[in-house]
Amino acid sequence: MRLIFIGPPGIGKGTYAKMISQKYGIPHISTGDIFREEIAKGSELGLKVKQYVEKGLLVPDEIVVEVVRKVLERPECRKGFILDGFPRTIEQAKALDNMTKIDVVFLFEAPVEVIIERVSGRLICPKCGAIYNISWKPPKTPGICDVCGTPLIRRKDDEPEVVRTRYQVYKQTFAPVIDYYRRKGILVEIDASRDAREVVADVEKILREKRLIKE
After folding, report:
1. What is the CATH number of the domain that holds 159?
2. Is there a domain that residue 200 lies in?
3. How many domains does the chain have?
């Protein structure tokens, strides 16, 4: 199954993708994570991306498309994948159509106040990427990752006003992409204001209806 997850920052796409990825053995591909890793490594790609990120600019389509193309060519993507954070533009969506056939595009939605409340308690492991929440998924030891023992951090872009701004930017940026997939008839809207397990159960229900997973 070849899936795309779309939704505003902080809505929980990474959590849902990780749950589906682990259960069904398909890779979760987050362009944001790939770029952050490359910047941290100081690779050629990382240096290219960094100059745009530091200025608050979107990474050019040709760079993003080439990164995704290389990832989709990996053997582990043959059984399927979940794309998170891509495509962001119509040009990227059309380029993806030339690479592969997408089965379902899930659009996760929730009021901005719900997202702010959820994100304000989020903690992330900078080493393994595990995500926690002070309110509903706290680490066993406060401030320490359960998986690898690394001190957890709070991202600067998880501050309430930053989240509100990013939400508005998302609405403007993704509107054409959402409309593109709605016209293709493969967009499914999911209420993501609920517990993650309920959201993922809805995703699985749709996948069963489309016979992408078995009963």
Report:
1. 3.40.50.300
2. no
3. 1
Whether 201 maps to a domain, the answer reads: no
Q: Is 182 marked active-site?
A: no
- Distant-in-sequence, close-in-space partners of 67: CB < 8 Å, separation ≥ 6: 31, 34, 35, 45
Is the residue at 47 inside a domain? yes
* Catalytic status, residue 210: no
pTM over 0.85: no
The answer to whether position 211 is within a domain reads no
| pLDDT tens, position by position, 76-103 | 999 999 999 899 999 999 999 999 999 9
Annotation says 74 is catalytic:
no
Active-site annotation holds for 78: no
Q: Which listed residue (2, 18, 88, 118) is catalytic?
A: 88
Which residue in the list 2, 13, 18, 118 is annotated as catalytic? 13
- Whole-number Å distance between alpha carbons of 131 and 110: 19
Range of the domain at 184: 2-192
Catalytic residue check, 154 = no
Q: Which of 2, 18, 118, 166 is catalytic?
A: 166
Which backbone phi and psi does 62 adopt, to 5 degrees? Answer: -65, -35
Catalytic residue among 50, 154, 155, 182: 155
